[in-house]
């Protein structure tokens, strides 16, 4: 059975090695990537920012609590 055109291209790329083979393989993988839509990027960015704010507030609250505790017991 004859190989398809895509199979021939992949077979040639597998035979190459070194610098050019790396970039050929990388380019082929990038074409397979499912890139996120604009709405997904906005939602993921918003979720990341909200999580950063929440974690920042938790760390700040812990820092203030420990500082007050150390002041209360007379260490600082």
UniProtKB/TrEMBL annotation:
It is found in: Cell membrane; Membrane. InterPro entries: SecE_bac (IPR005807), SecE_sf (IPR038379), Translocase_SecE/Sec61-g (IPR001901). Keywords: Cell membrane, Membrane, Protein transport, Translocation, Transmembrane, Transmembrane helix, Transport. The keyword Transport applies. It is a single-pass membrane protein. Pfam families: SecE. Coiled coil: none annotated. The chain crosses the membrane at residues 41-62. Essential subunit of the Sec protein translocation channel SecYEG. Clamps together the 2 halves of SecY. May contact the channel plug during translocation. Component of the Sec protein translocase complex. Heterotrimer consisting of SecY, SecE and SecG subunits. The heterotrimers can form oligomers, although 1 heterotrimer is thought to be able to translocate proteins. Interacts with the ribosome. Interacts with SecDF, and other proteins may be involved. Interacts with SecA. HAMAP family: SecE. Belongs to the SecE/SEC61-gamma family. This is Protein translocase subunit SecE.
């Amino acid at each position: 059975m004859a190989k398809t055109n895509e199979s021939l291209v992949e077979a040639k790329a597998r035979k190459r090695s070194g610098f050019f083979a790396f970039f050929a393989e990388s380019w082929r993988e990038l074409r397979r990537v499912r890139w996120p839509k604009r709405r997904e990027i906005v939602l993921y960015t918003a979720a990341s920012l909200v999580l950063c704010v929440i974690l920042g507030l938790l760390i700040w609250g812990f820092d203030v609590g420990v500082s007050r505790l150390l002041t209360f017991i007379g260490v600082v």
